[in-house]
Amino acid sequence: MTKRLIGLTGGIATGKSTVANYLQNAYKLPILDADVYARDAVSIGSPTLAQITARYGKEILLSDGNLNRQKLGEIIFQQSEARNWLENVIHPYVRNCFDQAINESSANTLVLVIPLLFEVGLENLVSEIWVVYCSPEQQQQRLIQRNHLNSEQATARINSQLPIAEKVAKADIVLDNSSTLDSLLEQVDVAIKKDIRNPV
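The chain above was modelled as a monomer; its predicted structure follows.
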């Protein structure tokens, strides 16, 4: 039987981590996280970090040799060309990590948290797509609070991704996170019982 691979995505600060943590804790499902793999891709000594340093110079590094994420973030969220370049460098590594983890896992159901699922064309990696949604106003407010950004910085990050309405239109399951946490988790409980590979 083929594995059930849930692609969990949404906009920045819409609540993907909340859903992933709940699936892990309540349903004991393995969580594979693109952000974790992307961080690993730029670890000290990695070929990817060497490419980034070659492009932007030593100023892109912290004093301990690690990538200065904040500085890189300021560059890529303002320049789409820089963002596309970085995605092309990092995402083959991330895809490889997913493939390996899926092959090595004995679990029948896996959750793949991929914030840029549509943007980098990883739809064919999963068997179903869940999109976590909230209103644009809530999204901006949550992002400002979580990342201590001003409204301009938050808007740049939101605008760097595919509009949430487009993601919702491509989803198999839409989880509305504009209300309470209980409401969101109830929707997850319903969604996990709907295996779209075997619709009843």
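The chain has a mean pLDDT of 93.
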